[in-house]
Fold each of these.
Amino acid sequence: MKILTGNNLETGAVVWWEGKGWSLHVDDAVDAGEEFETLLATEEAERRVVGAYAIDAERLDDGRVRPAHIKDRVRALGPTVRPDLTLKPNDPNAIAEVL
Amino acid sequence: MAELISENPAEALASGDVQFRFRDDELVSDPAVTVDAFVGQSNAVAVRIEPGDDARELLPHLDRIALVEVNFPAYTDGRGYSAARILREAGYAGELRAVGDVLIDQLSHMKRCGFDAFAPDAPLNEDDAKAAFDRWPHVYQSAADDRTPIWNLRHER
Amino acid sequence: MYKYDQYDQAMVDARVEEFRDQCRRRMEGHLTEDQFKPLRLMNGLYLQLHAYMLRVAVPYGTLNGQQMDALADIADKYDRGYGHFTTRQNIQYNWIKLEDAGDILADLAKVEMHAIQTSGNCIRNISADHFAGAAADELVDPRPYAELMRQWSSFHPEFTYLPRKFKICVIGADKDRAAMKLHDIGIQIVKNDEGELGAQFYVGGGMGRTPMIAPMIREFVPLDQLITYAEACLRVYNRYGRRDNKYKARIKILVHELGKEEYTRQVEEEFQHMLDQGIEPPFAELERIRPYFADPAFETGLSDDIDRSDPDFALWVDTNTHAHKAPGYVSAVISLKPVGGIPGDATAEQMHLMADLAREYSFDECRVMHTQNIVLPHVKKADLYALWQKLEAAGLGTANLDQIGDIIACPGLDYCSLANARSIPVAQKIAQRFEEKGQSNTLGELKLKISGCINACGHHHAGHIGILGVDKKGKENYQLLLGGSEGEDTSLAKITGPGFDEDGIVDAVEKATEVYLNEKQEGERFLDTYRRVGMAPFKEALYG
Ligand code: HEM
Ligand code: SF4
């Protein structure tokens, strides 16, 4: 599926399109289908997101979302060399799952 | 250099109209021709420089030029700044007009390079533009304007 | 150290206001991202993998204690308690909010710092020898010239929209510690036969996807024409540098395509024309700047003896200090490369400590090295032991300068949106591997440099051993390079062959060092052996 991602304009935080707005958690991301250009343009113009783009991802059996490219998996979690600063500081498997 | 004159309120301007000017002579309204056309003909008084043109080709003809337009198709292409300075360094005193993708945040640099008229594709917010022209309390380098560089201010007796 | 006067301060303050205003216009919607991006970049603000990243300039790498404290405070107040010192002698923060950017720049301006022109297609922060003003082998301190050029290049009206970024480096010794020939303009301050100082110009070096070593285009530019000559170099570039292809837009490509002779001819022509344009600052300005970089009040009659009875300390002295011009002093290097750590990262506490140590032991001065370490330039030999103990206690006492563990690594895929592969974990694994083998300090000088993509921010082209991260069908992959150098004998490293995965590249580096140990002759460094025996034995060991 295609999901949408970008950054929050004011804070720079990585965000994912969850249907009505933008979430910090990739697992909230929804399938954006193929018709997302207008949506992205509107969201950018309304300054709810910056640098937004669509990526390939799959929804795993347990409902979690896994971006196809490692770069977006790193974005979704945080720096692999600083587990303490990621979104899942207490999950010992989080980094292995990114790779 | 003359005071800033804003031509008309921004709302009344069309794309490409002169919005700001630091000259009090008449606006030159002759159509500007290309550098090639200008060098090859004798009666034009206005010429338009594109980014790839060599401004030095105009130097032998400066006395018959009333207006040079320097086009910025994209503001990120900075060749026009060098073209402007080359003309001013050679003594050109006529109108030097920045046209095209002319935006707020480039105005003060353009003015320093010798531009004295600005005709943006999209008219600019007048207050923001004025703030931009007045942005720098001082300047480090000498350029094509008449501002005294900090270097000289420091060593004036 | 240089001190701002009212003018310098007014300019930096004006810039803070300008950027605040630009941020406001962006957040209110008067500027689109396309229009705002180049403006924020000229204030060092990038959008990276996790947030905005702010790059703060450290002009010619020199900081005083108060400035280092301010960098620590920014890390604490606006970021997550740390910063990353870079190969460009700057510092980057990885977790910045756009809303805070104006306040951060205002905090910096209070201590005479800024983020001006740390990105964008303009003249960037000017780098210099990190041992400037201290090294025993130096002809003159290059920093007065770098400071003059800092002022000249700040808000330069003609050169703010160049074809591409522009990096200038100034050195004042024959020994090149700043990769001078890998800059767009490299300047060495030299003396001519008449004993006058002048500037030797090297133009068109760079790394990135087409690395090139800058050729010398002028042996001697008199100091009272320095700025005019630089202006001529830049104008030719601004007019004729390629703008059709971003990958061919650096000045190195122009110099290469025109040829050194033709480029030089055009510069000289422009220079002749500019000479009577009043571009050069009054010579008194250089005279005004120079005393700021005068020697601090070195004590005289100091002993050169060092008590080496503690072997760990003795090792640190041997690896991490550099000969000083004043008797009884050395320059001491604080390693930001603990084994297994993140190269170049320092916490706010460590920065505060380094600020304190600079005040206590080094005339309130420290330097950022392009190898991502910190120098205390003027330390009394008698103080070294006390200094080292304090560094050790804070995890800053690693003895590995220019050795296998002193790895340069760019942020890579952990932080950088352009990356193909992670750099930091590779650096960590290599340092750990050699520590386990007990070889951290037995391989001699060995400069290892890692970039996470072809942009070469980690200088992999200039590594004795270089590592380049590439993308191989969506997987991280690493190429090995050998034989680069960024010194006065600058050379570009060559790729050994097919790439390796993350563990494979660590093994490959180990094999390369084994070849060195087998082949080396008396007194040879890794680089010397490589240059003598060539690539073949290394290839054989890696792929044979
Ligand atoms: C994380 C954000 C960064 C981005 C987006 C970035 C981007 C780039 C790009 C695009 C280039 C290639 C320029 C060209 O060839 O025209 C480059 C080169 C370079 N960057 Fe970075 N960089 C980043 C971080 C760093 C860091 C952390 C350092 C220092 C460790 C650094 C130092 C350099 C150096 C030394 C070069 C090579 C200079 C040359 O090509 O002459 N950059 N960077
Ligand atoms: S070399 Fe590539 S990955 Fe590393 S910091 Fe530069 S742009 Fe990013």
Amino acid sequence: MEEIKVGLEVHVQLVTLKTKLFCSCSSDYRGKPPNVNICPVCTGLPGSMPTLNKRAVEEALKVVFMLNAQPYATSYFFRKTYFYPDLPKNFQITQYDKAGGYPLAHDGSLKLTNGKVVRIERIHLEEDPGRIYYEGSRATAKYSLIDYNRSGIALIEIVTAPDMSSAEEARDFVERLTTILSDVGINVRDYEGALRVDVNVSYAGGERVEVKNVTGAASVEKAVVYEVFRQKTMHEKGIKVVRETRAWDEKRRITIGSRGKEFEEEYRYMPEPDLPPVIITEALMQKVKDEIGGSQEERYNEIVNDGINEELAKKISSDKQLYSVYEKVKFYEPTLKQLAANVLANEISYLMKRYSVKSLPDDVSGLVEILQNYRSIPDHDTAVDYLKKWVEGEKVKVSLQATSVNEIHDDVVKVVAENYDKIKNLEYTKKFEFLMGILIRKFGKENKKVLVEELTKVLSETR
Amino acid sequence: MNLEGYSLLSILKEIERGSINAEDVNDFYYKKSLQLNDKINAYITLLKPDDKKINGNLKGIALAIKDNISTKGIKTTCASKMLESYVPPYDATAVSKLKEQGGRILGKTNMDEFAMGSSGENSAFGPTRNPLNNDYVTGGSSSGSAAAVAANMAPISLGSDTGGSVRAPASFTGIVGFKPSYGAVSRYGLIAYANSLEVIGILGKYTKDVKFLFKLIAGKDPLDSTSLNVELNEKEQFKPKILVIKSFVELSKDEVKKEFYRSISKIDEEGFEVKFIDSFSLTEYLLSAYYTIACAEASTNLSRYDGIRYGPKVESTGNWRDYITKARSFFGPEVKARIMMGTFILSAGYYETYYLRALQLRKLIRQEFEKIVRGYDALYIPTMPVLPWRIGEAIEDPKMAYASDVLTVLPNLTGSPALSLPVGRIREFFVGGQLIGLRGDDIKVLKIAEMMEEILKVKNDGRN
Ligand SMILES: [Zn+2]
């Protein structure tokens, strides 16, 4: 088996942003009539100037931290000059790691399902071009129509080292990345075309071939399979594979070479003079870290440090939402953390799957109430019913008992003390029945279970 | 009514007093422009001001705006065939500030195409002619903005200054031209030639008018990340400390030198403290650093003009290279030359050799300048080393025009405020003296210019 090397350049739209990267136009372009979300800046009108959307830097930093990458304290925007009708200035504002430039971050990593670690070389911010629309097909359309609604949407580009050695690994990388992105709210699955990949493939030490613009994990896998097959066939026939850029044909599932002779790409990068450097301060990094609550590894370690067992910790840390709820409950009532971990890892994650719940409520007070009274809920089904109510955002009042276990405990002690004279000479069973009668009248039948428990406890203490 | 020689401030005062109204004022400048424009070619677009009453600081007065500053609904051509029918859908920040304060637009002024040039000859709409002698150049690139003021075709005007484009024509037409500190006036809407060097500037007959208008348009703009707030409050009267670099003066023609030194003795007599030093160590690198940076930035700025969105229609032959060659042919020769130089400079293998070195030089020049000028209120040198030349004369020798920029590019490289004012006379022409301050000292430079104006009494009041 000859060696296969795959490296990816993944372009991700920061779909959590409401506005574009360099202007205040709405970033909501899907399904809109053409050229409605545009302004002088994102159509590159003469004299217009970009101003950086600070929120974009914060969102990008979330991904940087999730991929264990290091931000540069100062990074720069560059102009990358090339002609294309969907690029209104004929240069793209992006970041560059040469010519005195620094991208947003460098040296990250992502662990594949099989345990292999893929190195991430750099992550940078850039603007998306517009879109060209061909009526019918490209070959038959009379005009190329340009829609600038997408022009200027904030993208991050994640560049990996050529560390993947199979189509499956490339697919797994994109899938794992998609999950990590959704951990910080960037749900690319919900937005068509929000994740686009340039796939670099080389076979048996040959030249690297770049397949542009592949959308989605499944297509990445197919593109690698095809490209390896193509290069392998050439290799076997003794034809040299040349370094080139190919296009991905989604319908036919093949890659297509660009027509004409090859030429060295010449982008004439230069610093963007209209934008000051991007400064990443300690305070900004802390703010972003507070928002995301660190990487899964950091979350896992924190839960284990709370004394929760590894299996539960793994389950909770793998889901950003479960973790956030766990943290909030812990903050409200530290003594509930073990119970919270159990319930989150089992009942709540079951409920989320079962009822396809996308997001848990921000307000955990209902959950805290359930957990505080958990022991007095008569049975498991009832408990799950309560939890379901909370998960679905309903108001929860644990009505089966009028009061909390603590209060019941206090009241049981009080009832025993008040009636001490009457019961002191009775035998245990009689004593128990007598007191139970008073307690049931006071708290109702539905609390019988907890009353029995508490009374048993109190009597054993006063014996 | 004859407003020849009137300052903008005195006009505003007369309107305040009720002795004249804005309509009459606008009518005067409009009629004068109609009458002279065929000869001077100061305006590309001239607009008849309406007579709606407007309040605000400018009281409805109409001003001239250089044709590379975006004006909503009014053609903004950059004096290029490429933009001959381009109408911006938005106003530059400086323009909206003027409008908010009661200003109107009298017209869009002629210029060197895309602000590339020092003579005002590189315009797709023909050269601007010097009001002092119509056979001579006005200087550029804000040629029309200077000529309009000098010929009483506008009370005051906006220009832009990338390497001397406000000061050179001010010097050649005998008026005041002010280039603010880099960032002191928003560039939003100024059609970019070289972003890191340029700024919107003001041309007027009197420094006080220029100062007044500067205060109206200065300030940080959220749409321009490179803009900043400079000090706008004025210091009490002070005795200016002036530095003169002799080697800069020596670059000038003898007659220019003589008039310039004469102005120094006059201000010296009036109590200015004048110090001389021999030379500026990086003089020989000024022009190369300037042109390298300017052309590099220009080549990317101008890459958007590809015939798809701007420019006359090009019939496609189906061959992309043919198409792009034709579409780009609407640029004039000077613009093409600078795009090609910039493209070369940014090409792989040359970027480090030229562009990065030019950026390093700029840094050194800045440090050297600050070291020398700190402790003084301003540097004082001639604006142009030569007098205006005959139209067409420099075309055989383009280096002659480039070399004339040697004294004006320094403040663009350092981001300093710089002002040219008339300080001497030679035949029908004027000699311009240039004051250059530290970045942020805009008001100080304007103040010194006002004092010098008072002392020297060299004035082109348009009544020659
Ligand atoms: Zn926009």
Amino acid sequence: MRGEVIRRVPGGIAALVLVGLVVAPWVVDDYTTAILARTLALALVGVSVALLTGVAGMPTLGQTAPYAAGAYACAVVGSRVSDIGVVQLVVAAAAGALLAALTVPLVVHARGVIVLMITLAIGELVVIVLGRWRSVTGGTDGLAGIPPVRPFWGLPALANDQARYLYALVVVAMLVGAVLVLLRTRAGLVLRAGRDDETRLRASGHRVALHLSGAHIAAGAIAGAAGSLLVVAQQYISPADFGFDTSALLLLGVVIGGTASVGGALVGAALVIAVRDWLFGVLPGHAPLVLGALFVATVYLLPTGVNRARGRLRPPNAPAPQPDQPAAHDQTTVAELHR
Amino acid sequence: MTGLLEAQEISVRYGSLAALDGVDLRIHDGQRHALIGPNGAGKTTLLNVLGGSTRPHRGTVRFDGRDVGRLGPAARARRGINRIHQRPAVFPTLTATENVVVAALPRVIPRRRWWPGGRRRAAQRLAGPLLDQMGLTAVAAVPAGHLAHGQRRQLEIAMALAGRPRLLLLDEPAAGLSAIEVGRLVELLQALPRAVAVLLVEHRLDLVYALSDTVTVLRDGQTLAAGTPDEIRTSPLVRQAYADGVA
Ligand SMILES: Nc1ncnc2c1ncn2[C@@H]1O[C@H](COP(=O)(O)OP(=O)(O)OP(=O)(O)O)[C@@H](O)[C@H]1O
Ligand SMILES: [Mg+2]
């Protein structure tokens, strides 16, 4: 019920996974380490998708937009202004938050499938802009040769894949921790309430649109920060990193993970991205097809994941399913009146 | 004495059906006002208009001396109009306590204003006693979606009270409750501070007579009669209306 998969998994396994993540770069080769670092960035975007889809009830296909905004902001700042990781993270998160804030009017009043369509359009629009705005983004060629990051003033630059991976791991752990703390506050409680029943929330005096805007901007900041991790991991970005397939995969991963669960989103998103990368090698050219089939299967086989978002996937005016409404009491009242 | 709530000439149409047709209603501070009438009379529609979830086609609603006609349900709740719905509306995945906390948050007064978590703690302090009053302490940690129908209705009443209402709109609060639960409800409503005005929609006339000091009878979207419970009880017009409404 709590939706936090990580809690249901015995603590031992969670700890084991964590240990595995820490030692991974010394076990696998450099190439795989780099891929793992990128996967961490995408898993963090997955957390922002879960925040919107599962917790706030706004299913989204557009988190690649703030992700891209953060990545490009970080790449530009990293190449021209500062190689300090903290600076890049803050700039990237701010860029993601800003883009999310700009799109707030488009998404907070829409519901369900409409949100999916609008966010999808926003994501695609951003990719188009990235391809055209050559002077800043390098167009479809992207931006390359971004210098390696220094996490903090006075620290050395992260010169190898292991170090960059560990940097990404630490940042993801801290941000996920922050999200988990946030969800335990009043804000998280009100968001879950809104996902359950927006009308009821309004009837209690809550400014629902304001809460949703806040969630949208916070999710944008997280995705933006993830964008900066992508830059650190790859030292190269192009519009291809932010296409529709990435959005769809992340939503798939989050649905597999159980939408409302931050831990589940991390695992689900990482899993799906890993499967994609593996399929690219095994079945060149057919990966999208396999993943599409997987998506359909997931939606049918894991209704609980999808159900979590049902509060807003239902058309706005449709009544909530209501089992037992006693209707026959009117007869007795009339009898009483005539007594 | 001017009214806390004054609704004038309220009309609501659904297609060709006039759900409300020029209804006036005035509720004073602390008044216990009942609204009765056969099915489809427009009682719920009138509550929706007062609560702000339905815009009337004609008419004005004033609360506490101000025109609130343009305000939505949230803004009206923040001014002190709270309601329970004919179908109990609660947050199914939240526990009973969390439901009350969420409902309390907008109007709660924290002890230290800028202390992080202060509002939440203040809301939490409200929740315990309210759940206790409604007999829900045993299920305080149970998700509301798992509660029985009657419990959900009681939970929604606790939520409405958590919002520190000045006007409480109750749409059939006793429907679906057991005899014990109805007894508890009557006690609770009788014990409400006099500052809280109540508009009670209820089919059970024994409750109406026990709880209200004024009764308005609606039928086919129009006010048929208004008066004290005694006047209404003996009014032939009202008996006739109820007989027709069921026939
Ligand atoms: N959203 C709506 N669309 C169309 N017609 C509606 C709508 N809401 C209410 N009505 C109609 O308006 C009339 C008044 O309905 P309302 O729910 O206010 O009655 P009520 O007095 O609350 O009845 P009950 O005792 O059954 O709850 C009814 O004829 C109803 O069918
Ligand atoms: Mg009704």
